[in-house]
Amino acid sequence: MSLMELQKGLIYGPVHSRRLGLSLGINLLPTNYKLCSFDCIYCQYGRTELKALLVDERHFPYIDQVLLAIESALQSDLSFDYLTFSGNGEPTLHPEFVDVVQEVASLRNQYRPQVRLALLSNASTIHQPHIRQALKQIDLPILKLDAGDALTFARINRPSPMVRLENILDGLRQLPGVTLQSMLIDGAVSNVRGQPYEDWLEALRVVQPRHIQIYSTDRPAAVPGVQRVPPEQLKRIAGEIARRIGAVVDVYWQGGSACFAPTPGSPIAGVLVG
Q1: What is the pLDDT of residue 220?
Q2: Which of 9, 12, 154, 204 is most buried per CB count within 10 Å?
Q3: Which residue from 92, 94, 97, 86 is spatially nearest to 44, judged by alpha carbons?
Q4: What is the dihedral of CA 51, 56, 61, 63, to 10 degrees?
Q5: What is the dihedral of CA 6, 8, 9, 12, to 10 degrees?
């Protein structure tokens, strides 16, 4: 199995997603290189070619192009459950992200009000009030949190110098009932052992998400030596999160998934509910 190829258009899919059902992707990023504020060691697209938090607008598709493609998809015979902002990097870096979300929501309401909007984001811009405001129009924003301490954050996510973990945590705290996603890895760099694991759990406690999605890598990573966390360990971690944090935890692995619900007052580490 090789690294995933970059998405070649403004719209891609629909793809079958374990989390979202049939998802039609929206790529607000370049089609010939990866543009992101992170350069995660596990990324399925490989290394980030342009890593920045502030990016010149010439790197992005025009908003009119995006809206035309989405309107065409909404009027087509394609079947999908979600329109998902994702693509070749970090979608919220688009300089007109707020306007794009507003216009896409309007088109969705006009043509297919039953379709939901989702966002897959690394949360690097979530400290900005206008980004948090835009998220109110998205039915399911899913935001990344892989580490709870600055060193592990730097080693796993390898962010742009302008990105600070404390800003991410501050922004996430201002989103009541947020849904988080966390990639858990082992090897030379790990967030499932020792102090990095405890710091990550503490960050989850501080943010107080309503829902957490955890998984490990199924594909080759951008950096050699990234090790997959086995399903049984993922399930143990999910149970511990449900008990200690009080959130619903979905755990995904290749070929399966499970859901753990919090059980206040129970001595066991969460209850497997699916």
Answers
A1: 67
A2: 204
A3: 86
A4: 130
A5: -60
Pick the CATH number of 11-177 from 3.20.20.70, 3.30.930.10, 3.40.50.970, 3.40.50.720: 3.20.20.70
List the strands of the sheet with 271-272, edge to edge: 11-17, 21-27, 82-86, 116-121, 140-144, 179-183, 211-215, 248-253, 256-261, 271-272
Considering only residues 7 and 85, tell me which one the structure prediction assigns the higher pLDDT: 85
> Residue 171: which residues within 8 A CB-CB, separation 6 or more?
123, 126, 127, 128, 131, 132
Nearest to 20 by CA among 172, 148, 181, 154: 181
- Tens digits of residue pLDDT in 80-125: 999 999 999 999 999 999 999 999 999 999 999 999 999 999 999 9
Query: CA of 222: how far to CAs of 6, 14, 217, 234, in Å?
Result: 13, 25, 11, 22
How do residues 30-68 score in pLDDT, each as one tens digit? 888 889 999 999 998 888 887 777 777 788 889 999 999
Q: Where are the domains of the chain?
A: 11-177
Q: Where are the alpha helices (DSSP H) in 34-157?
A: 63-75, 97-111, 129-135, 150-157
